[in-house]
Amino acid sequence: MGTKSYFFKSFAIVALALVAFIGFKQILPDKIFSESKLDSKNVLIDSLLLESVAEDSLALDNDSISEEDRKLNRQKIVYDETGGIEFPSETFENYKGYQYLIHFYEKLYQLEKNPQAKVRIAYYGDSMTDGDLIVQDVRANYQERFGGNGVGFVSITSESAASRGSVKSKYSKNWKAQSYLNVKKPTSPFGVNGHVFFANDHSNPTWVQYEAGLNKYSTSLDNATLFYGKSSKKGSVNFIIGKDTLKKSLLPNNLVNTLKVSSGSIKSFKANFIHADSIPIFGFNFDNGVGVHVDNFSQRGNSGLPISIFDANVMQAFNANLKYDLVILHYGTNVLNYGTKNYSWYEKGMTKAVNKIKESFPGVSILIVSTADKSTKYDLEMKTDSAVVPLMKAQKKYALETESGFVNLYTLMGGDGSMVKWVDEAPAKANKDYTHFNQRGAKAIGKLLYDQLNKGYEEYKILREKRDSGSKQGTVRKSRPDSVSVKSDSL
Amino acid sequence: MTTIESINNWFIENFGAITMEKVESWFVYNPDEKLLFNTGLFLGLFLVFYFVYGFLRKTFYLRLTYVILFSLFFYYKSSGIYFLLLLLSSVVDYGLSQIIYKESKDNVKKIYLVISVILNLGLLGYFKYMNFMIGTYNDMFNGNLKFHDIFLPVGISFYTFQSMSYIIEIYREEIKPTKNYIEYLFFVSFFPQLVAGPIVRAKDFLPQIYQKLNLTREDVNNALFLIIGGLIKKTVISNYISVNFVDRVFDTPLSYTSFENLMASYGYAIQIYCDFSGYSDMAIGIALLLGFKLPANFRTPYKSTSITDFWRRWHISLSTWLKDFLYISIGGNRSGSFAGYLFPSLFFFGLLLWGISNYNESVIPLLVAGISILIFCLSFLLSSKRKQTLVTNFNLFTTMLLGGLWHGAGAQFIVWGALHGLALAVHKIFMELFPSKKDQKPNFLWRFFSIVITFHFVVFCWIFFRARDFETALQVINTIGQLTFEPELWKTIVIGYKNVFGLMLFGYVWHFLPETVTNGMKSVFDKTPILVKAIILGFVYWIVYATAVAGSQPFIYFQF
Predict the structure, then answer these.
(1) Tell me: the pLDDT tens digits for B506-546?
(2) Tens digit of pLDDT for each residue in B53-72?
(3) Candidate from B54, B219, B254 with C-beta closest to A8
C-alpha cells in the first residue's frame, strides 16, 4: 500500500480512460449535436426553393456526373461576333462570358466619352449583400472611375436597414410589406426590388425617413424620387425636408408612377403617407442623373428563383424610367444546405429567372455571380462544403446557356478551403458562420468583382479599337489610300 | 499474421495511419494547432510524460529537469521560437532576484527592483501594447507611424506576473530565493499554469518543491473531478456556444434581433466563465496529478451578491495579485500616490474630451462623462472618512483600469475596467450609508435581487469586453434596448438554436446549483472504484470528442 504507489493508480485511471474512450467511440454515435432540420416555417427562405427541393428527389449517378464534367470542362466556347466584336474563345472551366456583356461595355464606353451619359446596374442578391455589403464597394469602384453620385434605388422597409451604412433609413412599424420571397400572389405586382409596400394604417401615420450616409459619392440624397404603382384610389404624401413640409398628391394611373421629392441634393427627409392605403409603394431612387448607379436589391434567404414570378409589364415600366444596362444575379448561399449535390433543378429554375430578366429589361446584359466558398465541419475540421463546387458548376452552366457573363467567386476568393482562411486570418475578412463576409471581406470581394468586370471592359476597348481601325482601313482602302479621315472616326 | 494485420487495421481505423509527417507534426510548432489541455495530442504526450514522472518521483533535480524540459517543449508547441524569450527573461529575473536578496542597502535594493519591474513590464508592453500605443498615437495626433509586426507570445501576461511576484516577494522579504536557477525555472515554467494561469505565487509554490512528493487517493479524486468538470465546461459548453452562436452575433450585431443580442450577451457570460474557469480547473487538476496544489481560481462568481463579492470569486489569482502588488504598491487604502491619481484623472479627462468632441452629434456622451465623474466624486464626498475614501477609491480605480488593460490592448478593456472600478466605489459608499445588520442574515428576497443585479451588471460589462471595438459594443447595447415582448418570435429563435440554448441553460443550472449538490456529486465520485472512474473519464473524453467543433478554438485568455 502506501501513498507513493498512487502515482501509478492515477496513471492507470488516465490510461484506462483512453481505452474506455476507444470503446465508447465504437458503440456511440459520431456526433452529439446533430444538425436537426429546422421547421421551414420559421426560417426566412423562399417558398419556390422549398417547392423545387421537394420536387427534386432523383439523384444522378455520381460517376456519370464527373465524366460529364470532364467533357464539359474541355469544351471550347467560341463566340459569334456582336456588332463586329468577338472576344477570344475560352474553355468552360475558365468561363467568363465577356462577349455577353458587350451591351453594358458599350454603354460604359459611351459614358467615358460623354460624362453626361449614364449607366445603371441592378444588383440582385441574398444575405451576402445585406446592408449594402459588396454592392456599395462595386458602386464606389464604378463611381470612382466613371462618375456618378447616389446609392440608387432603396426599398421602404428592410430587415437589414439598421446595418446599412450607405444610406440610413427608418420607418414606422405599420407598413404592410409583401416580398417575392414568400408571397406568390401579391395584392399588387412587386416592384423592381421584389417588394411592394402598403401604408394601410388609418389611425396612425405611416412614414419612412432617409438620411444620406457617409460613404464617398453618396453623402447626399440626389433627385430623391418616389416610385409607386397603380391603384384606383388617389392618396397624398407629405415630404418633410428640414422645417419645410411639401404636400403632394399621388396619382396612381400607370403601372409605375414617379414623384420627385426635390431636385438637387438634400441630406435627409421624411415622407408621411396619408390616405394612401390602396396604393402600392415601391421605394425611393437617389441618383444625380449622370455616371454609374448601382441598385442593391438584396433579400435574405433568397435563392434567386422568385425572380421568375416578376410581372414583366411592371418591370418594363420600371426599365422605362431607370434604364438598366446590366443585371447582376448573385445567389447560391441559400441552396447549399439541402443535402443535395445535384443542382439540375436549380439550373432549370434559374434559367427561367434569367429569361424573366431578359423579358423585363430587353437588351440588358446579365452577369451571374457564383456562390462564394462556404465551410462545413467534416470530422474535426472546417472544410469547403461538398455542395459548393457542384453548385458553382451548375451556376456556370446556366450562365453559359442563358448567354450571361459569369464571375466565379469561389475561385476568385481562393478556391478550396479559402473561407476558412478568410475567417481565421487576422484581421478576419469573414464571419464565424463561415458563410458571410464582414465589411473588410466584402470590400475585397467588391474589388475582385469589379476587377474582373473591368478586365473585360479593357479588353472590349481594345477589340473595339481594332474593329474600328480595321473597318476604317477597309473603307479607306476602297476609297482613298491616304489617312486624312482618321480623326473623325471616333465620333 | 492475420492477428497482427487485424490489430494494425484496427489501429489505423481508430488513430489513423502513423506516418513520418504525422509524428513530426506532434513535435513541431504549428501556429494553427496549439497544444491545449483538451486536445488528443496533449493526452497522448501527457500519458507518456506521466508514466516516466511516476518513476522519477523520488528523485529531485532529475525530476525538476525532466518537468522543465517537458514544460519548455509544451511552450515551444504553443509559441514556437519564443520559448527562448521565456528562458531569457527567467535568467535575467533570477539574476536580479539574487542581487536584491544579497544586497543589504535598501536604496540599492529598490533600484534593482525598479530595473526588474521596468524590464518585465517593458517586455510585456512591447509584445502586447506596442501596436495599441501606435494606433492611439496615430488617432490622436493624425500620425501615420507604421504598426510593428509583433507576435504575441502565448501566456506572456501570466508568466511575467508570476516572475514579478517572485522578485517583489524577495524584496519584501516574504520569501527566500530558490537555491539555484533550476528550481526557479521549474517554478516559472511549470506547464500546467504556464499559458493561462492561475497566476501562482512564489510563496505558495516554492515550499511545495522542497516537500517530499506525495500523491494521495484524495488528491487524485480532486484532480479527476476538476479535470472532468473543466473539460466539459471548456470544450462542450464554451466552445460550442461561442462558435455556433455568440461569435456570430458579436460579429454583426445589427444583423440579429434584439432577443438574439440579449441571449448572446447571456451566452458570452457563461461562455467566458466556462472557458476560463474550465481551463483553470484543468490546470489545477493536472498540477495536482503531478503532486502540486495550486490555489482555486474561481468560486462560482455569478452567485456573487455584490460587485465586491464578484472580485473575490472571479479570477482570484489575478485579483489577489493586483491587490498585493499594484493596489498596495500605489498606496492601498492608506496613502495617495502620483500613479494612483494619474490614471483615473487621465481616464476621466479622456472621457470628458470624448463627450465634448461628440457634442455636436449627440449630447449623450457628454452626459455619460459628466455622470461618471459625478458618481466617482460622490463615492468619496458622501463618505464620513472623506480623505481616506478618496485615496482608496483613486487607488482602486487605478487598479481596475490597469487590470482591464491587462486583459487586452484596447479601449474597450479600459472601459470594462473603469465600469468595474466605478461599481466597486459605488458599492463601498452604499455599504457605508446603508450598513447591513451584522447579526441578521439577509432575507432571501434581498439576496435574490442582489445576485440578479450584480449578475446583470457583470453581463453588461462583458459586452464591452467581448465586442471587437467600442462601436460594436454600443450596437449590441442599442439593439438590446429595442427589445419588445414577442414570445412567439423568442420561441422560434430558441427552437432554431436549441442545442446552443440547451447548453447555456445547462451551464447556468450547473453554475447555480447549491454547493451541497456539487459536494454530494463529488463524494459519490470519490467512492467509486478506480475502474468506474476510468470509465467516467473515458466517457467524458468521448463527449469532448463528439462535440469538438472545428478543432480547438484558441483559449480566449491566452494572449493576455
Answers:
(1) 999 999 999 899 899 999 998 888 889 899 999 998 888 88
(2) 888 888 888 999 999 999 99
(3) B54
Residue type, B119: L
Domain range holding A254?
A: 38-468
pTM: 0.81
Helix H, strand E, coil C: the string for A108-160 is HHHHHHCCCCEEEEEEEECHHHHHHCCHHHHHHHHHHHHCECCCEEEECCCCC
The catalytic residues of B are 407
A12 belongs to a structural domain: no
Q: Is residue A295, in this structure, part of any structural domain at all?
A: yes
User: What is the number of helices (H) and of strands (E) in chain A?
Assistant: 11, 22
Q: Where are the domains of chain B?
A: 59-212, 306-441
Q: Which of B470, B460, B557 is nearest to B193 (CA)?
A: B557
The residue among B392, B354, B399 whose CA lies nearest residue B372 is B354
Q: What is the CATH number of the domain that holds A76?
A: 3.40.50.1110
Which residues 74-103 in chain B show a CB within 8 A of chain A? none
Please report where in the chains the cell 481505423 appears, as a residue. Answer: B13
Q: Is A40 on the interface with B (CB under 8 A)?
A: no
ipTM at complex level:
0.77
Is A3 domain-assigned? no
DSSP A437: B
> Which of A17, A22, A43 comes nearest B14 by C-beta?
A22
> Edge-to-edge strand order for the sheet containing A206-212?
A167-171, A206-212, A268-274, A235-241, A244-250
DSSP state of A85: B
Q: Let me know if residue A410 belongs to a domain.
A: yes
| Chain B contact for A480 (CB, 8 A cutoff) | no
Provide the shortest C-alpha distance from residue B156 to chain A (in Å). 20
- Asked if the Cβ–Cβ distance from A12 to B534 is below 8 Å, we say yes
